[in-house]
Amino acid sequence: MKYARVRTFAVSAIRALTYFTDAETTPMPQMIQRVAWPTIKRFLERQALDAGRRRLEDLLGRKPMRPILEDAIWQTERRLKHFEGLHRMTSAEFVQRYEDDEFEESLDYADWIGEYRLLRRLKEKTDTYCHEGGSS
């Protein structure tokens, strides 16, 4: 694999699966079965989340895991701070309002909610790893 030695390649590749800017600016192709774009987008987001989850679970079997998880948490928190500054609200406030359907769907909001959920999952995995005696 060309990027096998790049530590964050898998994370970058999975994030790229949810890059929809180009797709959202081009006309919908002719489909054999009619499917709405939001349905396709949700499917791809779920696939990326599942791929990320599988990758994280693969990594959890390797040592040292703690630095990898801590790096992923740091990167995710940095992206959350970007969204918070851009939209002038905390991620917790955004999630509450997002779940209350106060916002129109947008790529930016989908990215933000995805990062927020990723951070929760990474912290859960870190807690699990640390409690199961994982070393650093």
Protein architecture, described:
This protein has helices spanning 9-16, 21-24, 37-60, 66-87, 91-99, 107-131. The longest helix is centred in the last third of the chain and has 25 residues, at 107-131. The protein has 136 residues and is an all-alpha fold. The protein is globular.
What fraction, in percent, of the residue positions are helical? 55-70%
Q: Strand content of the residues, in percent?
A: under 5%
- Biggest β-sheet strands, sense, barrel: none
* Parts with pLDDT < 50 across at least 5 consecutive residues: none
Order of helices and strands: HHHHHH
Overall outline: globular
Q: Can you lay out the helices and strands and say which pair or pack?
A:
Elements: H1 9-16, H2 21-24, H3 37-60, H4 66-87, H5 91-99, H6 107-131
Helix pairs in contact: 1-3, 4-6, 5-6
In short:
The chain contains six helices and no strands. The protein has helices spanning 9-16, 21-24, 37-60, 66-87, 91-99, 107-131.
Short descriptors:
mainly alpha, 0% strand, 68% helix, 136 residues, 6 helices
